[in-house]
Structure formats: structure tokens, C-alpha cells
Design a protein that fits this description.
mainly alpha, 8 helices, three-stranded mixed β-sheet
Length: 298
């Protein structure tokens, strides 16, 4: 059988088979500080360093027995200086990775992975400086040892749970730790506002007024910290630069400004000056020396 060429139908390609899709994962987006954030960190380094030197200098202007507030306050800005120096030089931080899912109509949801800078040095700073700051306020009010212990333990729990929240892998973990941090903060508020007010009520009117002012100032500032955390490391609403600036302003107000206010007022109010005697002020060669092996005197 002979097939004429005109009888052969040409073969055309069809589109009945869909092309195989190529899946290319989205690259990780790293959210980190820019020039503004880095410059802000260095500004705070300088301010904390100068404040520390000023506080140590102020300590030498008063008798050694009256330097308790000065030394505690100088330690606060010293630790803050070290923390900010670490952050400004690129230490004390790493990335926390998380994934955000975006839903679409008639299209499968898309997933984007982010890596946001977390400054863990900041939490180390807070875990040391905030108990010292609480100790300043507790000594000013005349809180009992039990109340001081409860306030400091609650404060440390607040900082540690905030750190755990910053590295939470799920929303449940993150906001669960955040809730515990807020509960611990309420314990601190109670100790300063209720127990502190009751303790300072036995002192003179100037001390009572000063404690109410500086404790209220501190609590207002400390209430803003968790709000900034929720907007930055919590919900990722504000940038890392904005986070750095917000915390920098709060830290400057809560440490150097608090310190100068406390010490200038303290030096003008002798009634608020706790005295360190014996070993704590004069060493082993004076009153309060520990004697081991001495015979009892008749």
C-alpha cells in the first residue's frame, strides 16, 4: 500500500501536560541594626562611662561609711557601660530565626523565614543592674530584708523569662514566657508601691516625698520596657534600630538620670544615708573584725 504524502497529518505539540513547577525557597531575611542603631549604642557607651566616673568621684566626696548609695549606683552604670560596649563592638548578640506565614485567596499560603538580631547582652545587663537599682530604692525606703529578697528574686525572674520569651520558637512559648515576666513585674511593683510606702511612712516628710517621686519615676519607666519588648522582639512591629533607640532612652533615664537624682538628693538629706560600719567600712583592722582563735576575756 502506497501512502501519499498529502494523507499524512502533521503532528503538533499539545499543552495537555502542565509543565513541572520549579520550587525555589525564599532566602532568609535578616533583620539587624543599621548605622543609626550602631551610633546610638556608642552614644550610650560614652554616657554610661562618663556617668560611672562621675558617680565614683561623688563617692570620694563623702565619708566611707556613707558611700553605699554612691557605690551601688556607680556599679549600675558600670555594668551598663560594659553591656553597651559589647553590643556596640558586635558582641553580645545573635540571630533568632522565625517563620511568618501569609495567606492568599485561591493561592496556597506562603512562608518567609526571618532572622532578627537579639541582644542577649542587654538581658545580662538588666539581670545585674535592676536588682542593684531595686536595692537603692529599698534602702531608701527602709524595706525589710524579706521584702528586699522577694523584690530582687521577682526581678531576676522577670528578666530571665523575658530572655526566654525572646528566643521562643512558637507564639505560645514566646507570649507564655512574656506573661510570666509581667506577673513577676507586678510582684516588684507591689514591693515598691505597697511595702515600700509602708516602710518609708515612718521617716521624715522629705524622705517620704523623695521616695514617692523617684520610685514612681522608676515604675513608670519600667512599665514602658515590656511595651517596647512586645513591639520589637515580641510582635516584630518596629525595626531593630527603633528598638535600640527606645531601650537607649529608657536606660539613660533609668540609670544615669536616676543615679544623679538619687545621689544629689541623698547628699542633701542626711536622714536618707544608711551607714556602713565595722568591717564593711574600715576593713579587718577596725571595729567588726572577725577574730578566730582568740581567748575569751573575763
Amino acid at each position: 500500500m502506497i501512502i501519499h504524502p498529502d494523507m499524512v497529518k502533521p503532528i503538533h505539540a499539545t499543552t495537555s501536560v502542565a509543565p513541572i513547577p520549579t520550587v525555589i525557597p525564599n532566602p532568609i531575611i535578616h533583620v539587624h541594626a543599621g548605622d543609626t542603631g550602631h551610633k546610638t549604642l556608642w552614644v550610650v557607651v560614652v554616657l554610661m562611662g562618663l556617668s560611672s566616673l562621675a558617680f565614683y568621684g561623688m563617692a570620694f566626696r563623702v565619708p566611707v561609711q556613707k558611700r553605699l548609695f554612691h557605690i551601688l549606683t556607680a556599679f549600675i552604670t558600670t555594668f551598663a557601660f560594659l553591656s553597651y560596649f559589647a553590643m556596640a563592638t558586635g558582641d553580645g548578640k545573635n540571630y533568632h530565626y522565625y517563620t511568618e506565614t501569609e495567606t492568599h485567596k485561591r493561592v496556597p499560603p506562603t512562608h518567609q523565614k526571618f532572622g532578627r538580631e537579639v541582644y542577649w547582652a542587654r538581658y545580662i545587663d538588666w539581670s545585674v543592674t535592676t536588682p542593684l537599682l531595686l536595692l537603692d530604692l529599698a534602702l531608701l525606703a527602709g524595706l525589710s530584708g524579706a521584702n528586699i529578697l522577694v523584690a530582687i528574686v521577682a526581678d531576676v525572674i522577670m528578666i530571665l523569662t523575658g530572655l526566654f520569651a525572646a528566643y521562643g520558637t512558637t507564639d505560645g512559648q514566646k507570649w507564655g514566657w512574656y506573661a510570666w515576666a509581667c506577673i513577676a513585674y507586678l510582684v516588684v511593683v507591689y514591693q515598691l508601691a505597697s511595702s515600700g510606702r509602708a516602710a518609708v511612712a515612718t521617716k521624715d516628710s522629705k524622705t517620704k516625698a523623695f521616695y514617692a517621686s523617684i520610685a514612681g519615676f522608676t515604675l513608670i519607666l519600667w512599665t514602658i520596657y515590656p511595651i517596647i519588648w512586645a513591639l520589637s522582639e515580641g510582635a516584630h512591629i518596629i525595626s531593630v534600630d527603633a528598638e535600640i533607640i527606645a531601650y537607649a532612652v529608657l536606660d539613660i533615664l533609668a540609670k544615669p538620670v536616676f543615679g544623679f537624682w538619687l545621689l544629689f538628693t541623698h547628699d542633701s538629706m542626711s536622714s536618707t544615708s544608711p551607714s556602713l560600719e565595722g568591717f564593711w567600712a574600715n576593713g579587718f583592722g577596725s571595729q567588726g573584725t572577725l577574730r578566730v582563735g582568740d581567748d575569751d576575756e573575763a
